[in-house]
Amino acid sequence: MKSKLLVTLVVLAVCLSLVGLVACDGGLSELVSNTMSGNENNTVNGSTTDESTSVAEAVTDTTVTAEETTEVFEIATEDGEYVQEGAVYTITKAGTYSLSGALEGQILVEASEDDEVVLELNGVTITYGEDSPIKVIEADKVEISAKKGTENVIKDTRSVKTVDTDAQGEGAIYAKCDLKLKGNGVLVVTAGYNNGIHTTKDLSIKNLSLKVTAVNNAIKGNDSVTVESGTVVAISTKGDGIKTENTDANKNGEVRGDVTITGGSVAVYAAGDGIQAAHNFEISAAGEEAPSLTIYTGSYSGYTASNASTTSYKGVKVQNELNILAGEVTIHSYDDGLHADYGTTFEAGGKGQGTINISGGTVTLAVYSPTTMTMGGMAGPGFGGRGGGWSNQQSVKGADGIHADYQLNISGGVVNVDSAYEGLEGNLINISGGTTTVAANDDGINACSGVSTPLITVSGGYLDVTVSPSGDMDGIDSNGSYVQTGGVVITRGPNNQNMAALDVDERGSATISGGTLVVLGYANVKTSGSVRTYSLSLHAAGSHSITVDGVTYTFKNASAYGKTTVYSSVGVTA
Length: 574
Known about the structure:
- This protein is mainly β.
- The protein is built from one helix and 55 strands.
- The chain has a 22-stranded parallel barrel. Strands 53-52-55 form a three-stranded antiparallel β-sheet, with no helix packed on it.
- The longest helix is centred in the first third of the chain and has 13 residues, at 5-17.
- Mean pLDDT is 87; it is low at 1-55 and 371-395.
């Protein structure tokens, strides 16, 4: 349901009551959060926004630091060649080059198209204000390795980019070839001109302790970005955290533009999108230790500049498919937490599928979402930090926890949508496994119009949905039909035919032929097969337990709901 004036006024009043409580790094960031978590004993605890209102401060990072060196600069090689002209060292041949000491100048690579160049950083500080401090014009591959026990700093001190020019490198480290960053040392990159690390080809990161701060995109690989291991901190004060651009085909005929994380720890602080993939995003575990990804966008990032003018503040945004197979994903965003577009035409041919698949790991999303608009960088009168008037810097209507233009598939893992306008939204929503908890200001789950007739299907897993017991919203809302054949679903909402715990289109239906459906509020459900209807008392405020086929689930209602109706194909007791 989309008429939200009453709830808007309530949320605005709550926001205004919090004015002055916290001021941080350019303004007050507020989050009406709703924490829900599961455990290994099949116990799920839920609370609503009425109970867990909190103020969230902007967050900064101190995990990766490096001291600048004052030693005399040295470049050494046994198998390469270079020429020096003033403060510019031009590498002309494949080989390994060791860099140490302080250089007010540039390392320029102009080798042949088949050459592989290795830059070993052995405690080096390179500062340059005329072009990229490290710039690769020609080579097949370049590897930059921060050696173990060393601290290395690259500083691009140019003024902020205002016009496009081919004469200037686009990042503090800029390459027109495949670029690999590795090593067991520390590398800190600061970029005042445009991007932090930017290659026009593939970019990979392994083992390194890397921190990149940039005025625009922190880390950009036009063809791809891959993080294999290490600690990566990507900070953008006015742009996106990690980004790809190209969607043509590689030599194997695959569409370029993927962002992939298979290990390590990645933290992103971005004025705009945390991760923006031109094609796919995937996080999985290549080794024994699963990766972690933490993202703060908009004013959740303590680094966002007051004059940032981006218009999208999503956690992870893709043009095709978003896959979470393993790891810990935590997102605090001022726009959709996870988002997949449908219909983007790729240079290689074909169109974006708008699909999100979650099969493992733990995903926790907190999306700041007043019922009509998301306020970001600047806040309203009296909120502190960024001047009067409502912001047009970050105004996003209906920020969702997870939004797939076409299909959202949850088959495993743990998904916690702690706060959002709508919790889960897609044209087709399929839940077949995992533990999913959702708290939302509007619909908890919404199957919207799109490529196909809207449909929500539940065949397995555990799903717990919380919305207010009063107002113009639904716990589960399908603009088509709802079909359940398995799993355990608890859904809350108003006790009304128009605003309900479970609502479907007048041309659709809500049917259950297997599993267990617990409705706290109103729903018009059709049953079939062995499904029985139970009248239990689970709708009062407070903690409740329900045993389904011998397994006990515990949940909590912060508010009282109208009534309880349980539909189940197995035995249920309370």
